[in-house]
Amino acid sequence: MFARFLIRRVVFAAVVLWLVTTTVFILFYVGSAETVARRIAGPRAPQAVVEQIKANLGLTDPLFTQYRRFLGGLFHGDLGTSFILNTPVGTLLWQSLPATLWLVAGASVLWLVAGIAGGVVSATHARTWIDKGTTLFVLTGVSLPTFVLGLLMIFIALSVLAPLGFAFLKPGAFVSPFADPVEFLRVMIMPWFCLALVQTAVYTRLTRGSMLDVLGEDYIRTARAKGVPERAVVYRHGLRAALTPVITQFGVDIGTLLGGVVVTESVFGLQGLGQLMIRSVRDGDLPVIIGAAILASIFIVVSNLVVDVAYSFLDPRVRLA
Fold first, then answer.
1. CATH fold of 89-283
2. For residues 70 and 25, is the Cβ–Cβ distance under 8 A?
């Protein structure tokens, strides 16, 4: 039963990826050849130079030929070459990926632990001052834009803490933890907390609502009537059922953020996938734009596939759907 469930999900994921890649190709290649060639040649270049650039890039070939070449490259792991930097797209993505991966990985641990813990505490102390305080935090976190929070953190770190002798935190380009662990922490702590604080508010609210629904179910009342300790009722019976929407949201968020945490990376200057995409869109670098879009879609599809599998373990009824 589980094998058939998994095969269906994998086939569905493959179809989604094919549709996404085809859509991205059509959106960026159809009607874009003139714009791209003109941007490379310069605004005052003769039309003959523009046409020569289009021919050199293969943009004058029939659309089906371009699409076949595009798919052939994907099957061989070749995403093409940057029109602007003359560098393989795979190399550019590989250089930018670590910053985004470490940012999302560190922040996701913080927001998942804090969000679930806060939601459980708020739900088990409903309508008390603890619940009201948590609600205030949630509303503040949801209402605070990421770029405002990031700039506020930088201001506090550089203008308040640094003059007092606490100069450990600083914004800057990503540094590998294997090359310099201390510098890695100095650069990443603020982005982690900036991204996690906003997401924690969302997960606290989601966990609280889900826990309140679950704690009102008949089987929870039955467990309490049988004398099961409250801690076991909440964490063993209630939390597992309440986690299903949380895990679903977590998979969506992870996939989306791995595609490029544009605002956080830009505020702290991390040089990740988000900033690579911004530069590529600004320069009209089609291969890099398409490569980044395909990579982002792969992250989203794979994360949702993992969530479907995890969801089926949390709620076996999903396997029958």
1. MetI-like fold (1.10.3720)
2. yes
Contacts 24+ apart (CB under 8 A), 271-278: 271/96, 271/99, 271/173, 271/174, 272/96, 272/97, 272/98, 272/99, 272/100, 272/103, 272/174, 273/93, 273/96, 273/97, 273/99, 273/100, 274/100, 275/96, 276/92, 276/93, 276/96
3-state secondary structure of 42: coil
Question: Using CA atoms, how far apart are residues 51 and 9, in angstroms rounded to an integer?
Answer: 45
In sequence order, which residues have a C-beta less than 8 Å from that of residue 248 and are 6 or more positions away? 307, 311
pLDDT of residue 225: 85
Question: Tokens representing 54?
Answer: 């289009």
Closest CA to 264 of 138, 107, 157: 107
Q: Look at the block and give the residue holding tokens 């590989």.
A: 94
Confidence of residue 2 (pLDDT cuts 50, 70, 90): low
pLDDT of the residue at 1: 61
Tokens of 178: 């294997």
Return the axis-axis angle of helices 146-155 and 181-215, rounded to nearest 10°: 140
Q: pLDDT per residue over 258-289, tens digit each?
A: 766 888 888 888 888 888 888 887 877 878 88
Least confident of 8-12, 27-31, 70-74, 205-209: 27-31
Residues 6+ apart with CB under 8 A from 146: 194, 195, 198, 263, 264, 267
Would you list the domain boundaries of the chain?
Answer: 89-283
